[in-house]
Amino acid sequence: MEQTPAATSTVTARRDDDAESVFLDIMRNPASDDPYSHYRELRDMAPALITSDGTLVLTGHAECDAALRHRSLGRGDDMDGFRLAPVPQEQVAEVMATLRRSMAFVDPPHHARLRRPVSSVFTHRQVEGLRPAVVAHADRLLARLDGAAGGDFMEAVAKPLPEIVISDLLGIPESDRASVLPNSQALAALMEPVTDAAVFRAAAEAQRALCDYFAELLARRRARPADDLLSRLGTAAEGGGLSDDEIVSTALLLLGAGIKTTTHLLGNGVRALLDHPEQWERLREDPALIPSAVQELLRYDTPAQLDARVALEPTWFAGVELEPGQTVMTVIGAANRDPSRFPDPERLDVGRGENAHLSYAAGVHFCLGAQLANLEAEVLLQRLVTGAVAIAPAGPARRRIGLGLRGFDTLPVALTR
Fold it and tell me: What is the CATH superfamily name and number for domain 2-416?
């Protein structure tokens, strides 16, 4: 059994019926505009909670960070995880069989084998090389919002920008995108703890269609390679020994994770700044703060509110022994506002210094595309604060239903230059 270092064992997990009721209310109200007050309540009552079904729920930063880094807490053999709505098990099995062929759902040592062939595309140098193209895309998309009438920021900018960037990176031809990309939007439902059977079925069907598409595109790229990731992975020398099924699952992962999380980083970030106009003004006066602002926006209202792990073996953590297969739910949105880690955590501060948020997770499963998401957000803010005369709300926003991925369906804004 692996013993968690004493420095990370700051609390002891326990049962608490009142705290569990708060937790379940949070999970059952995933469209709440302010889950953070409920996170505070839960963290104050039980920062490490054992629920009646044996799930360990963590809301403190130290505990979440330690769990995400813990080598005995991983993706395991069963990452269906914590679900409050039943879905057909045969569909879950099909979905998970595909996901387990990608790096995000595999533990060491196989994790490194799957990640290594892809990681070269996401180095600082490679990502920075994409900046001119991202700037050009951002300028073209922002032009859709010019004028007093404005439009929906999500539809005009936040959704298409990462779609274009990831499609270019993977090598999806422009002629295919209109039919391929709508399926990527359905994938987010697979990771939600509250997903009804019909939504999950649609997501599973979308996953199946994308797998078929990427298998066909891989064959095309092998016959006629181009300068894209799928072409690299499709050759024996660059593929690093990945099977075709593993390449397809990797492409699926990058498409789903690279689009939806960045889309909602952009939407949540713009909304937070609209709600705090004094922070917009700080960025206008000092654009050098943009990189720190992106990290603060990730901390303040992260798209990734939850991240789950399972005990891979009998493991001592947070003062209790976890049995193999026991789920550990790290509530990232709560950890990112833990006052023991962040001074004045409820305040948005684009100039905040050291910012150890967990929005990209931690440990071996730290988000591979973090630098690319940062780049897209930095470019967008830079184009807004240096090129726009004003940006303002232009109608009521509508949040998407979900905590596994928190964001907006619509965010009307007016942009004038």
Answer: Cytochrome P450 (1.10.630.10)
